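Chapter review: from sequence to fold.
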Amino acid sequence: GPGGYKAGVAEPTSPVFTASLMENEAYDRIGDEPPNYEETSFSGGTTSNGNGTSNGEHRAVRPSVVSAFGHDTLDRVPNIDFYRNAGSVSGNRAVRPSLQELHDNGRISVTNTVEDREGSDGTPSDDVESVIPLDNKDGTVRFGWIKGVLVRCMLNIWGVMLFIRLSWVFGQAGWGKYNTETSLWSITNVFCVLGLGIVVIALSCVVTTVTGLSMSAICTNGVVRGGGAYYLISRSLGPEFGGSIGLIFAFANAVAVAMYVVGFAETVVDLLKENNAIMIDELNDIRIIGCISVVLLLGISVAGMEWEAKAQIGLLIILLVAIVNVFVGTGIPASTDKKSKGFFNYDAKIFMENLPPDFRDGETFFSVFAIFFPAATGILAGANISGDLKDPQDALPKGTLLAILITGVTYLGVALCVSATVVRDATGNINDTIATGMDMFCNGSNTAACEQGWNFSSCDVSSCKFGSMNNFQVMTMVSGFGPLITAGTFSATLSSALASLVSAPKVFQALCKDNIYTALKFFAKGHGKNNEPIRGYVLTFIIAVAFIIIADLNVIAPIISNFFLASYALINFSCFHASYAKSPGWRPAYRYYNMWLSLFGAVLCCGVMFVINWWAALLTYAIEIFLYVYVTVKKPNVNWGSSTQAVTFVSAVNNALSLTGVEDHVKNFRPQCMVLTGAPKNRPALLDLAHCFTKNYGLCLTCEVFVGPRTETLTDVNAGMEKNQMWLNKKKRKAFYAAVACDSFRQGTENLMQASGLGRLKPNILMMGFKKDWRTADTAGVQSYVGVLHDAFDFEYGTVVLRMNQGLDVSHIIKAQEEMEREAQEQKDLEKEELAEENKGKSIFRKSRNLSTQASVTTPQSPQVVVVNERLVSNSTQFQRKQGKGTIDVWWMFDDGGLTLLLPYILTTRKKFKDCKMRIFIAGQPGRVEQDRMKSLLEKFRIKYADIHVIDDITQNPNSNSWKMFEDMIEPFRLHEGSKSTTLAEALRKDNPWKISDAELDTFEEKTNLQVRLNELLQENSRAANLIIVSMPIARLGSVSDHLYMAWLDILTKNLPPTMLIRGNHKSVLTFYS
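The token string follows.
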């Protein structure tokens, strides 16, 4: 019934309904191609064409389906498949009915509502918004949040610092601040003044935690693809930031492989040294062991992510056992040997003695922090393989933040345990004990050891080799079983190296796929079911081996830390920037973030960069700025909806609104042109001149009017919007494209003049080409053209009309070129197809015979037409070339507010016209009075000129030849009612009201003579000018017929170099006041 489902129709939630959706022909199975629609008729009618008429041909019409509302409809219920991008790797894209299909009752041919990019292959550049399918039919390995993020981050954060430098950090910085004057330690003091050692760890954790929160917000604001930090930053801030940080981040990971492997090799060489097993010498042994290690790690990585994950699990187990071994060892009673080296079991007095800082050897809090902070990096290890995670949006926040918490607590716990059991200085001599019964007053820096019965006072005089300040192997001594610490050190270095070896190629591959750096496209290709970046692995291996051979990373290590910190800073800034822009598209599922906290994190990261190493920070900024400028100049053809675009939009709106609150001032006047070019490429000369006026400093609108029924022209309007704007951008024309569909050219232009612009950003000049064919055009066309000029005057637009002898419109040439290119491409495709058939060994005779019939043949043009077209193309592009030495002649006949003078002056400030001098022509009486007056005016306006000419014979009658030319021009459009009877004359006026009457010619005889005479003077004085500017005559509305006005404009500009008729709106655009 009307209120329910039809009988036999499955409900939308049923399996049958789901299956029917999958079988729907509107479902795009191949992602990039438009869907194939079968003809479906529920009424048994015939298929109709786009105009609703039956043509007997098969026509693709979108089928209607039974909706949830119980009736047949073209509308579709909401479905995630409608929101997928082209090339989605996680599902097929469906195409929803267009608004035109629904509105026009399905009579419009079905087209894809999303314009696919060529070459879409589901790479990160497609920025897909879709979910990762739960079923993994292709066998791709995907990781959950524990194995993919938590384990990797913990392994990367836990490094050799945990076993080698942590005790030294707390020995230098202490774990608290002790008030020696009162010798009191209370809970209040602990909470009021945190220990510097704790501050070191806490500050590191603050940086990583804030970054983790920002990353969580970004990665839950849509689907995350492969590329880690690069992907997050590029999709948030755009390709300029992403491309710059992506390259240095990938490089930092590659060099980090060398750093970790060298750390491992140094530990192995120390063991060899202890056992007198050095192969060559220490330096070369480090190189040999490092190279062998990185080859083995490369083998694990190339074997696949599954093997790499298993190796990481094994290393994690070893590392966890080593950490537990430290805690267990602190509780085992210390032997005499260990006591002599400074290790005693838990003792409150040792804990108190290690409370205050004791910086030595020129170390400060910041230098100690700089040494420790690299141990806290590694939080992006999970994000770097985001493309291999089952659900990055869920895994990254959970795994990363939990890893930061666990590792932070571990660092703090181990440090406090060591601070409570190991003194700062010890001799290592088992004989340095205090004899029983010996009365010795314990005071100074070794009080705790003294009270334990050991005399380490000699350490105050000379340096000792043991204690937390002197022995980097404290953890081995403290642990229950020393070799486990060595194994833990191996595990920490190798796991970090392995994580970096995987991260660098993954990030680099994502960067290369986006084709931001075209030279690196070679490394975008993946291999195998997991799309492994084998080429990236090889490159990373080469970089790592190169730095391993150097074997001295003391200089490069700070740079690596700064590269990582730069990534953290940009992730924080990305979160802040996206929040600040308040774009409706910023809807992160993770809510526990704050834009100001993210900004604080970004500033903190930048500060830490300088704390670690100021010159490395400056170098990092220099490299990033260089890459940013490079990408900005190259302008990669990508659009990811970045927050930079959102902020630019907000700024533009705010600036436009702020302009509305300020009245226009003559000093700030600048040309803002509405140019009637049609399609921008059709009249290049007109566009080029307009662009010279506006350049980067004014508004330029290229406008096109589609004349005809709206149903027929709307498709052309919509199709041309993006295409023409892209053409303008490609040609580096700072202009906008606007189009309207109307029943007449005049109506469309009127709509544009009234509605174009935004607040103060509104056109004030109308530019158009001269209607060269007015004598052969129909009356309506001439009336429409002249009507546009009348409308421009009515709306107080400045008006500019450009005339060139060869004409302006080159659309027919462009169309012919495009047709030839299309035919050439078809021929090329056919030849490729033929070659493919040959390679298959099949007969090609029938195929090659068809080539002559399939390839269309272009009709050759006559030599005369070719010459004319060549001249037209040459003239149409003349303003794209630098103008040679010459003049711009300005015939300033009437004061129109100064626009006739301002526009040519602007031209002389452009590079193309800088060699052109401006000559001023004015009408006046003989003598120097008029010339001096104009000279004074121009000097006050501060406008440079070459010469001033006063035309004193402008009122003379034109010669007979010129006048005859004008009479021949208007002859077809005259009534000649004076030689006819009154009745016949009235009938002629009634039938042809647009024609030129004898009375009209008599009334405007002087003005007509002026136009003809001006042309003579122009021929006489300005035939050699590069460009001529002439004041445009105005025809009184309703008094001067359209054809007479066109005759004025025609005779005035006939047989001249490029000429611009200009008429301002009679409001001042020049001033001599400061």
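Two observations follow directly from the output. The two ends are 80 Å apart (CA to CA). The first strand starts at residue 65 and ends at 66.
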